[in-house]
Amino acid sequence: MTSRIKEARRQREWSQARLISELERVAARGGKGLPSRETLKSRISRWENNHATPDEYYRRLLREAFGLDDYELGFVDGAVEQVATAVEELRARLVTSRKADPELLDALAAQTEAIRRQDRQYGARPLLEQMRAHVANVEQHVCHAAFDACRQPLAQLLADAAALAAWQALDLGATDQAWRFFETASRAAQQAGDPQLYAFSRMEQAHVLSDLASAGVAAELATSVWEHSNKRVSLPMKCWLAAGTAEMLAAANEQAHARQMIHLSESAVDGLRTDRPPYLVFDPTHLERWVGHTLTLLADGSAEARLRQVQADMDASFTRAGAGLHLDLATVLLQKRRVDQAIWELDCAESLARQVGSRRQLDRARRLRATA
Question: Structure pTM?
Answer without folding.
Answer: 0.82
